[in-house]
């Protein structure tokens, strides 16, 4: 299993897309709510083609190598979930352990979500086409939370050490920093997530 993904809600959707594009990410998909219907605005469309439509983007997906990031329109930046690429056997084992722990698992056709008691979810993804073979990957993530038992519980859920996740005590849940192999420099995205190359 491999950490590959994070998702958040933001009131700075266009700025967030532009930030990650400058880091070499490509836009894989854009979906907006329009008159109660989800409508795609994928590339080659650019923001100049639809900015005046005042769209509410449900999800924008950007990719680079083995890193997949999604974000959607919200009232303010809110960290929602992290994601792991898993095989079918790992998926079944993790869902079984989640059940034993009393954590809800929601299985869908495209992905499975584990609902933790810590105000963020874990996406389990078996589809390898959500990433590419380019040698860019997430090395570590730092999450701040008032709950100090997150790491212990995730190690129980995954039945292994989760050294790729650094949990720091903080007043509220926040994705603090993401270290990405193959990305140069260090900067903050428009949602105050520090993206550091390593």
Automatic annotation (TrEMBL):
InterPro entries, per the entry: Glyas_Bleomycin-R_OHBP_Dase
Listed SUPFAM superfamilies: Glyoxalase/Bleomycin resistance protein/Dihydroxybiphenyl dioxygenase
Highest taxon of the lineage: Bacteria
Protein known as: VOC domain-containing protein
Native species: Fictibacillus fluitans
């Amino acid at each position: 299993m491999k950490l590959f993904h994070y998702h958040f809600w933001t009131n700075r959707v266009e700025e967030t897309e532009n930030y990650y594009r400058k880091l070499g990410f490509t836009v894989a998909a854009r979906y907006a709510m329009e008159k109660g219907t989800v409508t795609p605005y994928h590339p080659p469309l650019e923001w100049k083609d639809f900015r005046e439509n005042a769209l509410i983007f449900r999800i924008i997906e950007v990719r680079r190598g083995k890193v997949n990031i999604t974000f959607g329109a919200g009232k303010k930046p809110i960290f929602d979930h992290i994601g792991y690429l898993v095989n079918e056997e790992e998926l079944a084992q993790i869902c079984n352990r989640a059940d034993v722990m009393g954590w809800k698992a929601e299985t869908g056709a495209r992905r499975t979500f584990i609902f933790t008691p810590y105000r963020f979810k874990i996406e389990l993804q078996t589809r390898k086409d959500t990433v590419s073979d380019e040698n860019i990957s997430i090395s570590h993530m730092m999450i701040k939370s008032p709950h100090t038992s997150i790491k212990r519980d995730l190690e129980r859920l995954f039945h292994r050490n989760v050294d790729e996740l650094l949990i720091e005590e903080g007043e509220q849940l926040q994705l603090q920093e993401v270290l990405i192999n193959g990305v140069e420099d260090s900067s903050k995205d428009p949602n105050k997530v520090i993206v550091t190359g390593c």
